[in-house]
C-alpha cells in the first residue's frame, strides 16, 4: 500500500503557517478558505445550542432540515424537509454519495482536490474531462460524450458527474446554456449529477443568472452545499445535501443515512442549531452574505487584473474567491527561470517571490500547464480587526493591509513577467 | 447493490422517540447514550471557542493534542502530542484505521454494532470470535487462534483485532490476564490491536484494575477514545486516537490524517476547545466523571439484579452503562410466548411489556440466543432536572422517576419469567 498524502491544499496551508511563524514574509494565496471572522449571531446560536448533547437523528433534526428545505425553495428548487440530510461538512456527504451510487465518476479537469481521492476511496475510477473555454467546474459537454464513449469501450462504467458552480479552482460560474448541455448529456447517458453549490451564495454580481442542474433534470441531480465558504465557517464543518423528490431520491437518501450512521453518526447538535438559523436566512444573514460576496468579488477582480497585466490568460472570476491564471503566453521566458510546468511555477512563486499558490496539477490539470489557483480570500488580513474593516470598507482595495498585499503580488508578477 | 440500513441502535432510538411522542409508555433501554446534561464548564468552553472558524490542521491544534497526550500519560501510556489525532467522534477514526491498515478484522462476538459494517465499508472481511466466560469486549484467546487458523486456511488474512473495554454491549471490563493473553496472540500472529477505550472513564469501582493492551504491546496497539460516553457528549462528536511511538505509528498516523483530509477535514474548532479542556482533566471534570461513573454503576447494578432475579444469566456489569442478560434458562417457557430467538425477544419486550432493548443479533451474536443489551443510562430521566438530581443523589434508586422506571422493568421481567 503506497504512502498516503494529506490533501495538498491543507498541506500547503500548514507549510505556509510554519514558514510565516518563522518570520518569513509570504503572501498566502494557497488555501481555499474565506479568511473572515464569524458573524456574531452565528456564535450566539452555537452557544445557545450547547444543550444539544444527545445523538439525535442521523439525518439531522426536523428544524434544521426544514430550514434547509426553505433555503432551496427560495432558489427555485421546491424541497421538503425529508429530502435534506445535514452532516459535518459537505466532504463526508460527497464521499457517501460515491459510496452508495454505483459506477465510475466524471470530473471537470481541473476540479477541487478532493473529488478524485474520494472516488478512489470509494473504489471507483475517476475520469477527468477538460473544461470548456467559457468556465470551469463543468466538463465540456462534447468532450464528456467522448470520454464516456472511450471509457465504456475500455469496460468502465461512468455514471456520476460532479459539477461545481461557482467553481473551485477557476472562480467562474457556469452559464445556463452550458448547464443545459450537460443535463442533456446526463439524460442521454443516464448519469447522476452531483452539483456542488457551496460557492453559490458568493456571486460577484448578484444579478448574474444562475441555473442549478436540479432545476433542469431534478430527478437525476443531487445538490450539495454548506456554510464553510459563504459564511467563512470552514472550521465549524457544516454541510447539507438535497436529494430528488420521489422513490429514487428517497432510496439514495436512506443509503447515505446508512453510511452516515456508520461513519459520522450525525452533525454535532450545537452546529445544527447554527445551521437552522443560517439556512433560514434572516435579513441580517443575507446582508452579511452580500457584504462578503462584494468583498470577495472586488479582491478577486484586483488579483485578476494583476495577473492579466503580467501577461497571463485568465477567465474573469464571477463567483467564490479564486483566480486561475494560465501563464502559457510566457512559457519561453519562464523556461529561462527554470519554470517549465505547474510544480516549478508554484515553487518559483513561493521561493523566489514569496507568493503561495497551488499548481493546477493538484486540481487534476495537465502537469505541464503553467496554471495555478490563487485563493484571493486570504488577503483580508490576519487580524479580526483587519478582516472586519475589509468587510465594511467602501473600497477594500484602499485599506493599507490589502493594498500592501496587492502591491506585493503585483511586484511579484511583474518580476516574473520580466523573466 | 442491496438496500443499506441505518445503524440498528440509531434506528431503534428514532422508533422509540416516535412512539413516545405518540403517547406510548415505553421504558427505553435501547440506545447506547448517556442521558445526562452537559457539564456547564464544557458549554462555556464551546462558547469561548466560537472564534475558531479557520480549518486548522487536519490532526487537530497543538493545544488539544498536548492535552490528549497528557490524558494518556496519566494512564500509564507515555504519549507525545504528535501521536494524537482528534476527529468528529471516534467512529470516523475507527473507519480510517480499517481503511489504512491492510488485512481482515477479528471482532469479539458480540461487539458494538458499527465495527462490522465499517470493515465492510473498508472492503474487509470481519470474523466474529466468541467472547470468553469472564467478560465481553475481547475475543476468547484460544478461539481467536482457532479463527485465525481457519480464516487463513480459506485464504483470508486477519491482521486487526478490535477490543472494547469496558465493553459495549456487555458492560464488563476485561481482566488484565485476558488482555495479556490477547496481546500474546497478537505478538505470535503479528496482529494490530485497536483498543476502543471510550468507556474507560466509567469504572463502577474506581479501584478496579485496568490494563490497556498499549501498556503490554505498545508498538502494535492503537487506542481510540472520545467524550461521547464519559461526559455524555454523544451529540457533540469528539473522538481521539493515539498511535504508537516510532516510525510504524507515525506512518499510520500520516495515513489516517490523509484519509481524514479527504473525508472530514478536521474536528470543528469550537469542539477542539472543549476537548482541550476536558482531556486536561481539571479537578471539576474529574469530580463530574466520578459522579457520573457512580450513577452508571448503581443503576446498571439495579437492572442486573432485576434480570438475574427473573432467571437470566448475566455477567455482572463493571464499567459503562450496559447489562447483557441471557434468558437461555427460560427458553422453554419463553417459547410458549412465541419467543424463540433474539429478535422475537426484543419484539415481545417492546410490544407486550413496553421495554425497548436491542437484541444480541444486532451485535453480531448468535441470532437464536435469547440475549439483548439493556442501556441503563437511559433511566436518569427525560428532563434536565431529573438527570441532575440523579447525578447528585446519595441514592439515585430512591428518586421517584428512577424508582418508577425500575419498577416498570421489574414488573415486565417478572411477567416475562411467569410466561
From TrEMBL, chains A, B:
Cofactor(s) in the UniProt record: pyridoxal 5'-phosphate
PROSITE patterns, sorted: AA_TRANSFER_CLASS_1
EC number: 2.6.1.-
GO molecular function: transaminase activity
Keywords: Aminotransferase, Pyridoxal phosphate, Transferase
Domain of life: Bacteria
InterPro entries tied to this protein: Aminotransferase_I/II_large, AspAT/PAT-like, NHTrfase_class1_PyrdxlP-BS, PyrdxlP-dep_Trfase, PyrdxlP-dep_Trfase_major, PyrdxlP-dep_Trfase_small
Enzyme class, broadest EC rank: transferase
CDD domains the record matches: AAT_like (cd00609)
Domain (Aminotransferase class I/classII large): residue spans on this chain: 44-375
Pfam families attached to this UniProt entry: Aminotran_1_2
Family: Belongs to the class-I pyridoxal-phosphate-dependent aminotransferase family.
Matches recorded under PANTHER family: ASPARTATE AMINOTRANSFERASE (PTHR46383)
Name assigned to this protein: Aminotransferase
Originating species: Kibdelosporangium persicum
Amino acid at each position: 500500500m503506497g504512502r498516503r498524502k494529506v490533501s495538498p491544499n491543507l498541506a500547503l496551508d500548514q507549510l505556509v503557517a510554519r514558514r510565516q511563524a518563522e518570520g518569513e514574509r509570504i503572501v498566502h494565496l494557497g488555501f481555499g478558505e474565506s479568511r473572515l471572522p464569524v458573524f456574531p449571531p452565528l456564535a450566539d446560536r452555537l452557544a445557545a445550542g450547547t444543550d444539544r448533547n444527545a445523538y439525535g437523528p442521523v439525518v439531522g433534526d426536523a428544524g434544521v432540515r426544514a430550514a434547509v428545505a426553505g433555503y432551496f425553495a427560495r432558489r427555485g428548487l421546491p424541497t421538503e424537509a425529508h429530502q435534506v440530510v445535514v452532516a459535518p461538512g459537505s466532504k463526508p456527504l460527497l464521499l457517501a454519495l460515491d459510496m452508495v451510487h454505483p459506477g465510475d465518476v466524471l470530473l471537470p479537469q481541473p476540479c477541487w482536490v478532493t473529488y478524485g481521492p474520494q472516488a478512489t476511496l470509494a473504489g471507483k475510477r475517476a475520469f477527468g474531462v477538460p473544461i470548456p473555454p467559457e468556465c470551469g467546474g463543468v466538463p465540456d459537454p462534447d468532450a464528456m460524450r467522448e470520454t464516456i464513449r472511450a471509457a465504456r469501450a475500455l469496460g468502465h462504467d461512468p455514471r456520476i458527474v460532479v459539477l461545481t458552480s461557482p467553481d473551485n479552482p477557476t472562480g467562474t460560474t457556469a452559464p445556463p446554456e452550458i448547464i443545459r448541455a450537460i443535463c442533456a448529456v446526463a439524460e442521454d447517458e443516464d448519469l447522476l449529477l452531483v452539483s456542488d453549490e457551496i460557492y453559490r451564495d458568493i456571486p460577484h454580481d448578484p444579478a448574474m443568472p444562475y441555473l442549478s442542474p436540479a432545476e433542469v433534470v431534478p430527478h437525476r441531480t443531487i445538490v450539495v452545499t454548506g456554510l464553510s465558504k459563504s459564511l467563512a465557517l470552514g472550521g465549524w464543518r457544516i454541510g447539507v445535501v438535497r436529494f430528488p423528490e420521489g422513490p429514487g431520491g428517497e432510496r439514495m437518501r436512506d443509503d447515505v443515512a446508512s453510511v452516515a450512521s456508520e461513519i459520522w453518526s450525525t452533525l454535532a447538535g450545537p452546529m445544527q442549531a447554527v445551521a437552522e438559523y443560517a439556512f433560514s436566512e434572516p435579513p441580517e444573514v443575507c446582508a452579511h452574505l452580500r457584504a462578503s460576496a462584494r468583498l470577495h468579488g472586488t479582491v478577486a477582480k484586483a488579483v485578476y487584473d494583476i495577473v492579466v497585466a503580467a501577461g497571463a490568460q485568465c477567465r474573469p472570476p464571477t463567483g467564490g474567491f479564486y483566480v486561475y491564471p494560465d501563464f502559457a503566453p510566457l512559457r519561453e521566458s519562464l523556461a529561462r527561470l527554470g519554470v517549465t510546468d505547474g510544480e516549478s511555477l508554484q515553487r518559483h512563486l513561493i521561493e523566489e517571490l514569496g507568493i503561495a499558490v497551488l499548481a493546477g496539477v493538484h486540481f487534476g490539470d495537465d502537469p505541464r500547464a503553467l496554471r495555478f489557483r490563487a485563493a484571493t480570500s486570504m488577503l483580508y488580513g490576519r487580524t479580526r480587526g483587519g478582516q472586519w474593516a475589509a468587510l465594511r470598507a467602501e473600497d477594500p482595495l484602499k485599506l493599507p493591509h490589502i493594498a500592501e498585499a496587492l502591491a506585493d503580488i503585483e511586484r511579484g508578477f511583474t518580476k516574473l513577467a520580466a523573466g
